[in-house]
Amino acid sequence: MISRRNSKPVHIGGVTVGGDAPIVVQSMTKTDTRDVRATVRQIKELEECGCELVRLAVPDDEAAQALARIKQGVSLPIIADIHFDHRLALQSLEAGVDGLRLNPGNIADPEKIKQVAMAAKERHVPIRIGVNAGSMPKTADPNLGLADNMVNAALKEIGLLESVDFDLIKVSLKAFDVPATIEAYRSLAEKIPYPLHIGITEAGPPRTGIIRSAVGIGALLWLGIGDTIRVSLTAHPGEEVIAGYEILKSLNLRQHGPVLVSCPTCGRTEVDVVRLVGEVEEQLVKIDKPLKVAVMGCVVNGPGEARDADVGIACGKGKGVLFKKGEKVGVVDEKDLLSVLMREVEKL
Ligand code: SF4
């Protein structure tokens, strides 16, 4: 049983992060923010995947100016990702963004950070202090490890925001190194009341990046740490959202669409279960109900798992036994397994 750390909630647009709110799944657009049409399109794609918050890179004035038009075209809360130039944060606030992300590693002047915090306070816009191992402040202590330096960078920035009475804060401490990331979050979680955005940065392409992210994010969630997550992948951002929900579903922290149970297959399998499961997985993407679907290769574990699912199939020689809500409801030829299974799923 996971006992979540208490945190002081913040509201980003209509989405609450922290407190008792469900753990929020977020992602980041990969379009050129200056291209309003493409960015709006991608935000809508993300929304269809279940993304709840979206961050946009704001590298220059033109991107900051595009934010107001992007905001008009979408309903998801948008967060401006700011590096180097605090003026872009001020412009983004004027454009009506719902949140800001500042990197303590590349806006060093405390007065500029305070200026942004005061402008955000006027508009009740939260700021994420996003520490990243790849862009640590120059003041990082070479005698300390990465985790301690990330925590110190966050605490220093938190102190700056609090000095102007700003407390709409969330924090992230991301590194590629999973143990360092976990160590940093564990340490910071005990020191501050603010919600934490968790993730493993630059985790890589989907095949390896999802595993690295699941290990890091999963370990933190198991410790009760984490109020919002992003899986960073070198892929379409929709993949990040799907992976994020799968991590949360694995720990029973969120329900989102179906769960697919399938066996690995072995020498007992007498139906092409690998192909069948691939097709079922593709079709389940369109279903948004939290159903449990099972596709099993034989009678060893098949009937047990299939019976336990909302809809399940336990395959045999050239056919499969269909189960619905724990009851055996028929025997289906191999060629009809996909269509019959999906028909039953859709009926539910
Ligand atoms: Fe093998 Fe049957 Fe187990 Fe699938 S359910 S892995 S086919 S023993």
Characterise this structure.
Helix content is 41%, strand content 20%. The mean pLDDT is 95. It has an eight-stranded parallel beta sheet with strand order 8-7-6-5-4-3-10-9. A five-stranded mixed beta sheet has the order 11-12-13-14-15, with helices on both faces. The chain has a two-stranded antiparallel sheet with strand order 1-2. It has 348 residues and is an alpha/beta fold. The chain has two domains: 10-250, Alpha-Beta Barrel (TIM Barrel), CATH 3.20.20.20; 259-347, Sulfite Reductase Hemoprotein, domain 1 (2-Layer Sandwich), CATH 3.30.413.10. The protein contains eleven helices and 15 strands. The structure holds iron/sulfur cluster (SF4).
Order of helices and strands: EEEHEHEHEHEHEHEHEHEHEHEEEH
Mean pLDDT: 95
Q: Could you give the order of strands across the largest sheet?
A: 8-7-6-5-4-3-10-9
Roughly how much helix do the residues carry, as a percent range? 40-55%
Q: Characteristics of this structure?
A:
single chain; binds iron/sulfur cluster; TIM Barrel; elongated; alpha/beta; 348 residues; Sulfite Reductase Hemoprotein, domain 1; 15 strands; 8-stranded parallel β-sheet; 5-stranded mixed β-sheet; 11 helices; 2 domains
